[in-house]
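User: I'm putting together notes for a lab meeting next week and I want to include a structural view of one of the chains we've been expressing. I don't have a solved structure, so I'd like a prediction I can at least talk through. The sequence is below, exactly as it appears in our construct file.
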Amino acid sequence: MYGLSKTIIISGGGLTGLSLAIALRINGVTVSLHEAGSYPRHRVCGEFISGVSQETLETLGIADSLADSHRHRSVAWFSGNDHLRDNILPAPALAISRHLLDDRLQKTATILGVDLHDGSRRKMNPNAAGEVWTAGRKLAKGGWIGLKAHVRGISPKAQLEMHGGPRGYLGVTPVEDGWHNVCGLFRINKSISARHSDLMPAYLSDNGNTELSQRIAAAEWREGSFTAVAGFALGLQSPTRGVLSLGDSHAIIPPFTGNGMTMAFQSAETALPHLIAYANGTRTWSEVCESIQLQLAKRFGKRLTSAKLLHPLLFHTVAKPLLKHAPLRPLLTLLR
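Assistant: Thanks for the context. Below is the predicted structure for the 336-residue chain, given as structure tokens.
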């Protein structure tokens, strides 16, 4: 089923861009994909995929790349140094590093014939037919900093540890080869003078997670895995008129939900049939963009609104009793 007439150009080779490119090629669409960085690479990401269906992965043609992911169900919740509770997720969550997954996906895309250009940073081209923007977060004034690394030797108490406090939270989960992903979101504190990898223990201590801070500082760190990002806003991203944005370029859900990677895949899945219709000439680009935007709003509206309402509570005085006593399943339903 190869050789549909119109080419789709994708700017951004993260999860949304790569999975969309793979799915389009499987359906016979010519694809040009541009990624500013190079593979493999580490990204600020919880590497914990909660709520994605096997059907979505198979529709995108990426199920094999995730087949050997860890499947986690146990969760331990902490506030400061206090262990509040343990839970079992209603369905297993997948855990795999972006370093491995992105590399697998770009190799699959290349084998399928995607015209992939790494080290290629494209500019937005509003109103350009057939161009999709999946280049991640849009620069914005925000008071958050995201920190991530892979470490060994920290002896977690569950397959996912969630550590909260008044200024942020951090998750710990095993990925491949004995490494644990440690990834957190914190309110920026300009009084913290630490730099580079010392930032994570410093922010954890500032957040009251002193025991975890000491465990992470003393652990073995995977070379090159520490990454940090700031200058972004959570929720719906500021739209650029005439640009079809997907994935984090469209919306960033707060990471406590464990749903960010899932939304990347679902965003690609939502857009897929419309982009195929454009490529084979049965729909115009303006019709396709309008349909995709409406379906993204329908698919993600409830969970983005719920996450926006719940997120501030994690830093409120009610956070500790909420984390200790709130029923898990109804909350997950709101965030899926």
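A couple of points you could mention at the meeting. The chain has nine helices and 16 strands. The two ends are 34 Å apart (CA to CA).

User: Perfect, that's what I needed.
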